[in-house]
């Protein structure tokens, strides 16, 4: 007979603790993984979104280009629709401006006002921008429209995340 026998109570206690811990780990691991998995996934930064606008079709006249992409925000996936005003400047460089007014975020339109041809017009409070996105002094916006970085793929326009307008000299 052993000098330190395990009592029936101790045996049951060890066994139940072990089995209980194993079962708890089995339940908690999927929950933990679900909780932190989206955070651990590597996000593509600075990625460009494809549009259906052919580079060859872009002229000196700004046109609205709508584009759609899937957005993953942690656990929530959704379709996002964005727009850009796109044209070629005098040197042939593609300009893609955000339509989001820098006053309070309304949507600006090219030639949106008969009184101000060849300008972007914001209907909310009469904001005006020049063709390159520069805000017109004396109107509500306090800064130029943001601009999308652009790329070409297979002859089509791709747009990045809007940045501070590089076409407006300070
Ligand atoms: S939101 Fe555009 S002028 Fe106010």
Automatic annotation (TrEMBL):
Which residue ranges traverse the bilayer?
A: 12-32
Please name the SUPFAM superfamilies in this protein's record: ISP domain
In this protein, which residues make up the domain named Rieske? 86-159
| Extent of the signal sequence | none
Task: Note the Gene3D superfamilies from the entry.
Answer: Rieske [2Fe-2S] iron-sulphur domain
Does the entry feature the keyword Metal-binding, yes or no? yes
Q: Which UniProt keywords apply?
A: 2Fe-2S, Disulfide bond, Iron, Iron-sulfur, Membrane, Metal-binding, Transmembrane, Transmembrane helix
> Any keyword Disulfide bond?
yes
> What CDD domains is this protein classified in?
Rieske
Stated name of the protein:
Menaquinol-cytochrome C reductase iron-sulfur subunit
The species is: Lederbergia ruris
């Amino acid at each position: 007979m052993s000098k330190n026998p395990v009592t029936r109570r101790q045996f049951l206690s060890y066994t139940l603790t072990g089995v209980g811990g194993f079962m708890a780990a089995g339940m908690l691991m999927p929950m933990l993984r679900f909780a932190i998995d989206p955070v651990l996934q590597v996000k593509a930064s600075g990625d460009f979104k494809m549009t259906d606008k052919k580079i060859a079709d872009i002229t000196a006249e700004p046109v609205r280009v709508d584009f759609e992409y899937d957005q993953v925000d942690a656990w929530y996936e959704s379709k996002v629709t964005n727009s850009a005003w796109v044209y070629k400047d005098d040197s042939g460089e593609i300009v893609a401006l955000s339509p989001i007014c820098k006053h309070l975020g309304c949507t600006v339109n090219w030639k949106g006002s008969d009184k101000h041809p060849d300008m972007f017009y914001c209907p909310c409070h009469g904001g005006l921008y020049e063709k390159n996105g520069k805000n017109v002094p004396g109107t509500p916006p306090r800064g130029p429209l943001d601009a999308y970085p652009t790329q070409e793929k297979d002859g089509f326009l791709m747009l990045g995340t809007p940045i501070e307008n590089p076409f407006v000299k300070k």
